[in-house]
Amino acid sequence: MTEPTPEAWSRVDRYFAETLVGHDTALEETIARQNSAGLPAIEVAPVNGKLLHLLARMSGARRVLEIGTLGGYSTIWLARGIPADGRIITIEAEPDNAAVARANLNRAGVADRVEILIGRAADVLPTLAGQAPFDFVFIDADKESNTLYLDWAARLGHPGTVIVVDNVGRGGRVADPDTTDEQVIGTQRGLELLGSDPRFDATAIQTLDAKGWDGIAVALVL
Ligand code: DHB
Ligand code: MG
Questions:
Q1: What's the average model confidence in pLDDT over 179-193?
Q2: pTM (two decimals)
Q3: Of all atoms in ligand 1, which is nearest to the CA of residue 70?
Q4: What DSSP character marks residue 94?
């Protein structure tokens, strides 16, 4: 039997991606342009982009909130998972990232259903109160603020809203009770909130993919 070495699980990830995700010019150009613009290569892996897309479709989402746009890679996957008259609000703190994302969304043909709000999510989220609630929320920004973002996801959602939190495994460091890494601590606090707050029911799975050993949490707003 093959041992789960990085070589082995990378081979499995490539096999899954080739077999089930395939190739897409807009998505591949999004990565290329994001890289050449100097953005960090921390977008979700293709298999996880496809997962977000499928979860949005499975949940019948029409209104999606994304916290952390980066270059728009996950935004494109999500935008393709909602109806043409659906809406994605995506929040990005870095104006330069937002400009890259805007161009990528245009090239992918989904800009009409995506609104990029530039600013710190902590400042932008309160401005969304009073809008129609969101059916799906993807949290993928500064991990220190995950509890804040989860609280807003519950407030801006409705019973049945699906929440996905990226990067909850952090190379295994999430299970270190003595960590001093603020991002890991923020991730832990977020998971603890999901496990204890009666507004949520949730689970998390580890992921081994093109981005290494990490994980995602999936939650339902009750
Ligand atoms: C980091 C952030 C992410 O959202 C991610 O997917 C990978 C890494 C980071 O800040 O290091
Ligand atoms: Mg991420």
A1: 98
A2: 0.98
A3: 4
A4: -
CATH number of 6-221: 3.40.50.150
Question: Which residue has the CA at smallest separation from atom 11 of ligand 1?
Answer: 42
List the domain boundaries for the chain: 6-221
Which ligand is closest in space to the CA of residue 211? 1
Distance 1 CA to ligand 2 centre (A): 32
Nearest to 211 by CA among 38, 36, 9, 37: 9
d(CA 90, CA 103): 14
Closest residue by Cα to residue 114 from 81, 146, 156, 142? 81
Per the listing, tokens 């999500």 go with: 78
140 lines ligand 1 (CB under 6 A): yes
User: Mutate which of 31, 167, 182 to test ligand 1's pocket (most atoms within 8 Å of Cβ)?
Assistant: 167
Burial classification of residue 159, based on how many CB atoms lie within 10 Å of its CB (0-12 exposed, 13-18 middle, 19 or more buried): exposed
| Length reported for the chain | 222
* Alpha-carbon distances of 216 from 69, 100, 165, 183, 213, rounded to whole Å: 17, 25, 6, 15, 11
- Ligand 1 in reach of 13 Cβ (< 6 A): no
H helix count then E strand count, the chain: 8, 7
For 42-74, write each residue's pLDDT tens digit: 999 999 999 999 999 999 999 999 999 999 999
First to last CA, the chain: 42
